Known about the structure:
Strand content: 5-15%
Largest sheet: 8 strands, parallel
Distance between the termini: 45 Å
CATH superfamily: Metal-dependent hydrolases
Oligomer: single chain
Order of helices and strands: EHEHEHEHEHEHEHHEHHH
Number of helices: 11
Protein name: 2-pyrone-4,6-dicarboxylate lactonase
Shape: globular
EC number: 3.1.1.57
CATH class: Alpha Beta
Bound molecules: 2-oxo-2H-pyran-4,6-dicarboxylic acid
Radius of gyration: 18 Å
Structural class: alpha/beta
Family: Belongs to the metallo-dependent hydrolases superfamily. PDC hydrolase family.
InterPro entries: Amidohydro-rel, Aro_Compnd_Degr_Hydrolases, GLI/LigI, Metal_Hydrolase
Number of domains: 1
Domain Amidohydrolase-related: 28-291
Number of strands: 8
CATH topology: TIM Barrel
Amino acid sequence: MSTDEHGRIRSWTLEPSLPRYRPPAGAVDAHCHVFGPMAEFPFSPKAKYLPQDAGPEALFALRDRLGFTRNVIVQASCHGTDNRATLDAIATSGGMARGVAVVDPAISDTELDALHAGGIRGVRFNFLKRLVDDAPKDLFLEVAHRIQRLGWHVVVYFEADILDEMRALLAAIPTPIVIDHMGRPDVAQGPDGADMRAFRALLDSRDDIWFKVTCPDRLDPAGPPYADFVRSVRPLVQAYPDRVLWGTDWPHPNMEKLLPDDGLLVDAIPEIAPTDTLQRKLLIDNPMRLYWPETF
Ligand SMILES: O=C(O)c1cc(C(=O)O)oc(=O)c1
């Protein structure tokens, strides 16, 4: 347990192993976060965890160590709707990061424009009760309509047990959708289990629902080499190769009891995406299409 004298937790390992797998040049870590630094960017009073600082310098050092080129920084719940830490990290990346914001539904169009100028390309709707106090679907849907003019997408985080409740909202969202961590299926059920079947039905309901094959550490308690995660997720990558994204999830919010080794997370990539073509789509083509569309 890595808690400092102020009760601030560390959920990432300070010495990740060097991965054996080397990503192709230009690879994107499409799901990561920054925490603080708190002195500059305080956490939300509503934050459900109080992490130690995990700022852009550490994030970009990890990016280089793991062999990645770009990051997509997703606003973490501990920063609420104050996106300054995420924007600061993007600003210091030299064009090598873009982001996903969490916004107050009352946000103005001018503020949305400023987020766009700062590199934001999507908004995140979080439905996990342990992370947020409320998730107003009607207001979220209004936000989804308002960001359409910017060419953004909606990132949604929910767990498998509420997938059915989510269907109506997901069907109504007018922009592309990205599902965080595949909606957290129980990977122990295997690729044909109820959770994966329900998730595939969702993917089949629209051709613009993307998903992140992230967080083996959260979804597969057996740990590396994440055998259940690999056997459940590989068929998904093979079936939907053009709308799948990968990310480290660093600094792994709330994982302080079992610090994931980022090097071993990278080593799982060729297991879930076994060919060069799949790896290129997963790590370069797909995230670039979504976050750096002007390069196409
Ligand atoms: O499962 C989690 O605890 C978690 C939390 C956050 C966040 O606090 O934003 O983001 C994630 O992607 C995952």
